[in-house]
Amino acid sequence: MSKTKKAAAVFLAALFLSFAVVILPVSAADMTRDDYMTAENQKMLIAAGVPFGVRLHTDGVIIVNLTKVGSGENAGSPARDAGICKGDVIISINGERISSAKALCDIVEKNGGELSVTVKRDGKEKTFSVKSAVGADGKYKIGVLARDNAAGIGTVTFIDPETGVFAGLGHGICDSETGALVPVSYGTCEEVSLTEIIKGKRGEPGELRGFFTGHKTGKILKNSYAGIVGALCGIPEELASSVYPAAGKGKVHSGKAKIIATVDGGGRAEYEINISSVDESGGQKNFTVEITDESLIAKTGGIVQGMSGSPIIQDGYLVGAVTHVMVSDPTKGYGILIENMLSETASSESAPIAA
User: Fold this and answer.
1) How much is the mean pLDDT over the chain?
2) Is the pLDDT of residue 194 over 90?
3) Is 12:53 a contact under the CB 8 Å cutoff?
4) Would you tell me how many other CB atoms lie within 10 Å of the CB of residue 70?
5) CB-CB contact of 209 with 19 (8 Å)
6) Where are the beta strands (DSSP E) in the chain?
7) pLDDT at 252
8) In the predicted model, is pLDDT for residue 27 greater than 90?
9) Can you say whether the dihedral through the CA atoms of 248, 254, 257, 261 is positive or negative?
10) What's the pLDDT at 348?
11) Known catalytic residue at 308
12) Catalytic residue, candidates 59, 193, 293, 324
């Protein structure tokens, strides 16, 4: 593998998840509604367990840190002095929309002096008057470090066979510096290829490493705390028969279950797990998952970065997805209820740069 691909593999795996799948177009028109509904009229979903590459472009730029402009006693952050905070999303300056970190730098450098900076904070827009200052390089700056996109590898939990809409990860894609959800302007799904498994150890989470192949397979519609929602160009042919009823409240319980995951070139496989500590009142960590399948433990050491989103099947129902690993014990982690992920689909028909 080239040095570029190796570097990409490490970067992608560190962000989230795993795998390689060729999306083969299958017409949903060939599948009748009756094929996917039970007698009780329950929602039927394809349990996927296949990885996908994610590229997100932000709606504005995320402030990942506040920096000092200038030197000595006069050095300071104009943005901080004006009331702007780490985690705010800059959406416009002087009424001009900001679409990238480079655009932010350009408009600040061209407009020295007082700037009208509009940010989004906790879902609300706020406008601040910021007086830019000249940095060591002789250019105007406002004292922020900004990020404008995100990329990584995730696992598809389910696909709606009627619409092609899917959900994955079981948790949102958050900025590594601020912990806030990355605000999405638009995003794409891409095919990825796994290259390596780093086994998990106590105190050291493992990971699945891979790289983007460049083949686009769909688009991202939403980034939520319950996971990524998107639409595929087509339903993978090999998944069309992997259909399960979605579990409602009260269906998941302590006891044996299985996950469907892709951790190597062998493709999708089922692995035994045990569910405990069920709490349906939460939004994300609704129950505890323990890997009991010795074959999976031998391969990965347990749950690793890259397995988030792996669908969980219990008593013939799709009950949820793996979301997190416990650092103290990689054989254990958390799961989210499938209904929490479904609720997000119902409403859905890069390096920092200093400025």
Assistant:
1) 82
2) no
3) yes
4) 16
5) no
6) 44-66, 89-93, 96-97, 114-121, 124-131, 133-134, 140-141, 144-159, 165-168, 184-198, 207-224, 227-232, 243-245, 255-262, 268-276, 287-291, 311-314, 317-326, 329-337, 353-354
7) 95
8) no
9) positive
10) 56
11) yes
12) 293
239: amino acid identity, one letter:
L
- Whether the CB-CB separation of 34 and 162 falls below 8 Å is answered with no
Catalytic residue among 171, 193, 224, 324: 171
Give 143's Cβ-side CA count (13 Å radius): 24
Quote the percentage of the chain above a pLDDT of 70: 85
Res 79: pLDDT: 93
Contact 69, 81 (CB under 8 A): no
Query: Residues 175, 308, 310, 324: which is the catalytic one?
Result: 308
Q: pLDDT grade, residue 347 (50/70/90)?
A: low
Q: What is the pLDDT of residue 124?
A: 87
More confident: 216 or 1: 216
Q: Which residue segments constitute the domains of the chain, with CATH numbers given?
A: 3-22+32-58+149-345 (2.40.10.10), 77-140 (2.30.42.10)
In contact, 23 and 120? CB cutoff 8 Å: no
Question: What is the C-alpha to C-alpha distance for residues 318 and 244, in angstroms, rounded to an integer?
Answer: 6
Active site residue 77: no
Beta-ladder partners of 126: 119
Distance, in Å, from the CA atom of 192 to the CA atom of 50, rounded to the nearest integer, reads 10
Give the list of residues 6+ apart from residue 210 with CB closer than 8 angstroms, or none. Answer: 9, 12, 13, 18, 19, 20, 51, 153, 192, 193, 194, 195, 196, 306
Can you tell me the mean pLDDT for 171-194?
78
What is the full DSSP assignment across 151-174?
EEEEEEEEE-TTT-EEEESSS--B
Identify whether 30 is a catalytic site residue.
no
Q: Which of residues 70 and 178 earns the better pLDDT score?
A: 70
pLDDT above 50 (res 18): no
